[in-house]
Amino acid sequence: MLSKNRFLIVLDDVWNENYNDWMALRSPFEAGSPESKIIVTTRNQQVASMMGTVSAYHLKEMSYDHCLSLFAQHALGSTNFDNHPNLKVVGEAIVKRCKGLPLAMKTLAGLLRCKMGYHEWEDILNSKIWDLPEISCDILPALRLSYYYLPSHLKQCFAYCLLFPKGYEFQKDEVVHLWIAEGFIHQPKGMKKVEDLGSEYFHDLLSRSFFQQSSVSKSCYMMHDLINDLAQYVAGEVCFRLEDKVNSNGQYNVSERVRHSSFIRQKYDVFRKFEPFYKTKCLRTFLALPVFVPDLAVECYLTNKVFQDLLAKLGFLRMLSLTGYCISELPDCIGNLSHLRYLNLSRTKIRYLPESLCALCNLQTLDLSHCKKLTKLPQGMGNLISLHYLNIVRTDNMTEMPLHIGKLINLKKLSKFIVAKGNGRRITELKGLSHLQGQLSLFDLQNVAEIRDVRVANLKEKRGLDDLIMKWSSASNDIRSEVDEFEVLDMLEPYQNLKKLSIFFYEGSKFPSWIGNPSFVNMVYLNICDCSNITSLPSLGRLPLLKDLHIERMCGVSLVDSEFYGATPYFDKLFPSLETLTFREMSKWEKWFQPLEFEAAEKVLPYLHQLVLQSCPKLVGDLPNLLTSLIKLSIFECPLLTAPTLSLPSLRELNLEQCDERFLTRLKDLTALTRLKIENISNLSCLPQDFTCLVSLQVLEVEDCGELRSLWQEGAGFENLSCLKRLAVIKCPQLLQLIDEDEELPSSLEYIEIEDCSNLVKLPKGMQKLRTLKDLHIKWCPKLLSFPSESLPSLLKNLVILECTSLQSLPKGVVHDGSSSITRCHLKQLEIVGCPSLLFPSGELPAALKRLEIWDCDWLDYIPERLLPNSRSLEFIQIGNCKNLRALPHCLSTFEHLTELHVNQCSSLEYFPESGLPIHNLRALLIFECENLKSLPNRMHDLTTLQHLTVFGFPCIETFPEGGFPPKLLSFTILGCKQLKLRCAMWHLHKLTSLKDLIVGDFDRDMVSFPEDFTIPPNLVHLQI
Does the keyword Repeat apply (predicted)? Predict the structure, then answer.
């Protein structure tokens, strides 16, 4: 999504000083436009020095007037004291004591918001806490005061959140469940749920500014690092984060009084990390962070000794989270943790759970979500009488439920129930689970044995359910019971509070009347898929709050008409709230009719914003008219759909793929359109004349149009597209040129991409006039001989030329030859790949160049020194598969900003320059399959900033340079150096105290074991041989 686009990113309150983490975070942003900006806020000067490319800007304290206004806003809901004059004097005095710090004022104001008495404010002003020396604990008095006045039930909840490190983002439900497991929240009297009480506690802390909402996700929250310091201060020795207790000698300082602990999960967690826990015999919390693990996270491994030895000694544990670890089984001793209330094994590789788990009579939460290898649950699950939450979402290999799960009458969350025919696993098990809340997925409904079983399950009385998924088997060879599926679905009618409903693989011939009944006043989402025997869609247009409707693979439906809309004289509007409507893979659908009585008025789909039609090969005729609110229209693989003239005044995005080219000519009033993508329109020879009047268009993408010969008809052009910023033409083999000789591209363009246009012979003239152009990408255009005679725009930042096999020269201005008549480009990225006919002109590359990549260019035998003398700003160089390259430039060592150097598959390269490599900022060096290379670079031990070194495929190397390796390596990979001998005096691995990852292999063929004096680096975590 960021690729080549300009963006602004704000990283707020950064505290992490780890350079590797910053490099990993920075990497995806490098694909964006060089004009992009990243703003970082931090209280740590080291962070500013590491991340910044310009001098840090130091914020000053807020002015007194701004402070007073901010305080009043949070304490009184107004920017002044006009409505509370009696509080003005004492309020001003409190503000002065906050010393211009916004967080201190917000937190105190949140405390006073529900205290409107003068004496209550005066008590805060005169508190002795103001007079405690700040230096003794480094906590602002105003923050200590805010904590002091918290109710006792909130104090322990807040202090517990010390377990979350600075910068950690958490979700409300995640925290509330932890509080409940620790016993901080007790069941309230009356009908109120303990979860609701926990939510109140959470929002109380949020309203008092102890928590703040994440700027990234609305569902996440975090603590300011000053508030985190406060939590650490008030928690004392009771709570600790493992990473915070390491002294200068690498030892952990952990008190025996610790009750709650957390630690950051690493890729390889060895037993040494957990040795401090042997002192904490009364530990209640063992929490691996982060609690939420994304699907693409790095796999993490935990030593078995934690299970075999440590857990058995932590007999007072209430909360155990091992989420995200690659563990496949639990030991039987898990059943001895009799106090355990919360067990999180989500996103692990657990295959089964021991039966001893069923002895945990106090267990309230069992999270097994995303355990994709889990095949079954213990058969004694019915003994877990205290279980409230059983999360088995995305446990795809689990094929049956344990026996008698209906005994778990306290269950509030059961994310999935798999129906079976045998006793103890039938749908009747749901009968007593009257407290179920949230989502419930019913799988294998074809196994319902009798209709009365569904009646006994009684979904209609489970009032806490708001998201219901009903799924029959998709396998054609599965034996379905003889019970009428219509009756089953009819009896599965839920309570009318339902918000979301999904139905899959239902084989009844019609839907029961409750589906679409307007009494479901809270229904916002409906998904109906793969119901092969349905010939007519249910009446859904009267659902008052339905916003998202998805109809997919309903292969028996040929007609959508007034029945679908539910048209009656009693309803003024149909689909009155619908915003997104999707039809996908409707193989027999032919006609779409709108009710005649509503045709002339905007009473059908009045608020529809997005319409998707995909793979409807027989659909012909009209689309609904008067879609005045439609913002996005996507039509894919609907070749017969032509439609009459369609007015879409609000449309901003249009995507068309495999459609009749005549459909384009039917679209009118596209004055609001900003993005147009046209793909695989087989008979399209040029864009319609009307499309030259898209005055708001910013993005135009044309792809895979085999008959396209020019973008516009003769005489038409870009003159009216004054807002166009991005133009991409891809896979158009008949395209000879973008525009006519006498035409010009819009001067507003910022990005141009031309790819896989096999007959394109030239580019448009006048490109020098595109003063806003930042990115130019020309790829797979084998007949392109040269660029226009004039130079490229001076502000061009990125130039990519890929597989243009006939191209003979670079555009003028890329390499400056000293001529004053040619405009010099200020490129920051130059990438040249697969251009065998290209010859580098003499001259210098741009001084601002930061990234240089040259691949598959056999003409390159050396890089002239004169080409690079001003390129001191280079940060990244990659040279690959240049088979004739004999040498790298000697000036390489002078590139003081270079951070990464990759040299790949340069078979003629024998030596690195004698001057060595740049020593100031180089952090990654990769040398790959340079088969004739005789040695590594000189003075590698001087590369004090190098952290990642990869050496692969050098059969000629016999020794390493004198002096050993760079001292601060974090990862070292050496493979395929068959002549290299393992001599410990030469390797000096014992000196690499920072090394975490070591991969070695395919060298010293005579070696059968490591030498006796071979010493593993002291902090090595991962060794691969």
Answer: yes
